[in-house]
Sequence to fold (575 residues):
Amino acid sequence: MSENELTEFAEYLYEDARARTDSPVGTGFNGAFVDVFREYLVEDGVLEDVESSYCRKQVGRSTAEVYGYALSDGGSVLDIVTAEHGWKAQTIHKADVQRALRRAQVFVEKCRMGLHLEMDETDQAYAMAQSIHEAWPDINRVRIFLFTDARLTVESMPPGEIEGLRCTYELWDIVRLHRLASSGRREEETVIELDQPLPCLSAPGNADFDCLLTVLPGQLLAELYKEHGGRLLQRNVRAYLQARGKVNKGISETVRLEPGRFLAYNNGVSATVTTADTTVTPDGAVVLTRLVDLQIVNGGQTTASLYHMMQKGADLSQVKVPAKITVIRQEMLDKLVPNISRFANSQNAIKEADLQANSPYHRRLQELSRSIWAPALEGSTRQTRWYYERVRGQYQVDLSDLEKQAEKTKFTREHPLAMKFGKTDVAKYELTYLGRPHDVCLGAEKCFHAWTTDIVNFFDGSPDGDYFKQVVAKRILFEHTRKIIQKMRLGGYLGPTTAYVVALLVDRYGTQVDLDTIWRTQALPRWIDDLVPGLAINVVRPLLVAAPGSGNVTEWCKKPKCWETVRAVDWGPHT
Fold:
């Protein structure tokens, strides 16, 4: 990549973050900067999600500083985010990296000891500190992520330890993120070197693909999932069901009681790669030595189940898993993989909703966003378009494809970064409007899955212009409400408070919330502007923080009972 490309991308990240907040500095910008990185990494499968929450405190002689956190892998992994921004592709050195990571480590150590008890409940970081403290008994691993728009001189940091737990460090600088964003694919290339080559049978396909049949050791499959996580399942059509379904319980029972028969009982996995290196042994056998871009498109539940059993101490030494590995040319991935997922032998029924990420619904929204002009704001003749980013990084790719500066300027004038939104955003706006703020609080990917399963699957026909305008109006309603609440400086829980305020607003005043008017004016009516502060501080906020039994607020917001409690309050007229 050229210097100009890298600098341009860094500027794009900065502008994207600035477009999400009213100020280019302060905690609001800190959160927006993390959100920009988060969206790339969540879609890539590196992270499940991240809740941005900035905290910087002096603790004795040490400084604690973090930008966000998440509890992933069923609450067993603590992900902490720290950041260095404002460098715009300049170089920072190892000492700066170590300093940022150490500050994040200090924060984790203090959270374990009860840092939240020293904080005011209105502190933005109170919920984060409390959640980490309460979750600590179940955490077995810590990952600290550094997000920066700088170029790093160090590629990796050796693992460490925090309060007896293994701690690993993930460094995401401008170079690494640019590779991910400009690759044209969601996932960064993964290369797996097989220390113990696997015997395999080659089954030649055609010009588009080849097939290999092999048997994977259960321990190897579990270790691969441990190292690469959700990235192995990025193109899988299902989410792991955490051993609640019959199939997963069956897998667990087989591993515990009859591990030697796993090969006979289990359907195995179907995977794709872009490259599979093989060699021939002296006795003439073909063995598999290296895989590039491994994606388990069917059998994700088998993979994740084995991993979770390994984490619980199960012996996988006798477990063998049949595997079909399809070698696909990179340009054919998006065409062939969905059909492989659709038609492969399945252990649980695959719903069409699981395949919606690349569906006609999303493609149609993209088409509409490129053709519909938004009304000019009052007093102006300048019109713009709302840019629907169906694939993460699409906006920046479209911008980079333009060679002349005049063309780039025209593009950004017609499609301002502040008017860009993606498919997980649509899920958030739609479910909030439908009175499901608890589902919105589950996080971007889980919210998207719920919306896809319950709404998109039953969508009648194809989105039209009016539908697109309503989606945009719901976005304006949500995001403008969020900005009003953010300016109130209520402390933490900005996301849940916004979702619940909007949901309650629609629940009580639905007939007065005119989406057509919001679209025409590209703004909220004054009565909503005036109503939101009181609704937030007097109704929603007290009920959210009053989690039963002084429980975790973040988890309370995800429960239907929380919405029932908020909705039942005697405030304002019902429609």
Q: What stands out?
A: The two ends are 57 Å apart (CA to CA).
